[in-house]
Amino acid sequence: MELLAKDMAVKIGKKEIVKNASVHVKKRQFVGLIGPNGCGKSTLLKSIYKSLTPQQGTVFLDDLDVLKSSEKKVSQRLGVVGQFNEMHFDLTVHQMVMLGRTPHKGMLESDTQKDYEIVEEALARTNLLHYKERSYLSLSGGEKQRVILARTIAQQPQFMILDEPTNHLDIRYQIEILSCVKDLNIGVLAALHDLEMAAHYCDYLYAIKDGEIHAHGVPEEVLTPEIIEDLYQIKCQTFTNPVTKGLSFAYGF
Ligand SMILES: Nc1ncnc2c1ncn2[C@@H]1O[C@H](COP(=O)(O)OP(=O)(O)OP(=O)(O)O)[C@@H](O)[C@H]1O
Q: Which stretches make up the ABC transporter domain (predicted)?
């Protein structure tokens, strides 16, 4: 499934937060959004997944006009892992992940054996089988993050949007979560802060600065010292990571 968000513009109050940004995620691509705090990554993502109404722009998931389609129709195809996962009422981890099945059910339709199997698999993929009966509210930030990902996997979307999915996660879980998302082998658009992770997992990157697409291309084209210095106002050198053999970065002021 392809995502094409075209000419997106979002204004909050008098401030233009996203300015004429277009993003294309081809079939099964893992595409990253990078850029400094406050540059507009979350706002762009929210305008794509309908949590915010853009002033301008269109979003298509293949031939589905996302901004004009019902919540249910969109969530049958699109899964979202947002940045803040707070809830005011408590559920077990199993109940939380089962909520991922909701878009595929009619009103009052009960959970089937198939739903249970899908939830079990989502819990296994995110290493949460031992947490099934735990209360969601009692979990750490990183554990909650994994439950939200499991819920989104149980939704069986054909496309996933993630806003800083590795927030709160230690290095091992950052790798596990991004590998898990990559293994789903579906189209992904993710805002990422860690440039080394972005270089490793993304097929293509969009760099955002002041609400605009500042650069885009494969990681080697975007993650150059010049572009990184320009985006983050720091000094940067790139090198080959001796452990991963991938692109790595040294920063300074
Ligand atoms: N509801 C709002 N009212 C006013 N300003 C807002 C609102 N939502 C976002 N902004 C502003 O829009 C700008 C972009 O915010 P956004 O959350 O999209 O950035 P981001 O790139 O995702 O940042 P981060 O990396 O810190 O998560 C920020 O200056 C933020 O303060």
A: 3-235
